[in-house]
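Q: I'm writing up a methods section and want to include an example of the input and output format. Could you take the sequence below and give the corresponding predicted structure tokens, formatted cleanly so I can copy it straight into the document?
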Amino acid sequence: PKQEAHNDWELNTVTRRYGAILEHQRSLRRIYPPIRENLNREQSIAWRHLQTNTYPNLCLLSKIDPTTYENKFPLCGKPPTLYHVTWAGQKAHVAPTNTTQTPEQWEAALFCSTPDDQLKVIDRARKTAKATGALD
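A: Here is the clean output for your methods example:
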């Protein structure tokens, strides 16, 4: 019985240290700030998809199904990347005009940590994706 208790204590200590090591390594790989608890599950998922460039967009969908989705923005003919459709392209007219259209401003928006700013970007992405047919 004493031996078992000793092994349990060792196992618990090793597990705690292992968890701490994993958490430390995870924090070193983190590029974007953690998601705020103010966002619901759907918004949190959309926010991570935006940050990782995997939010539904015509460019991504055209690679998955080229017969259904064309790799050009229907309103201007340019490649329909997530950045272009959501941030730089102004011809969709479903979201307010964006006066800061540079890639640097797009990256800054993806790094923002205030829930209000995050919700604005999520809403803009959702509206433009629906308008272009990426969220059918």
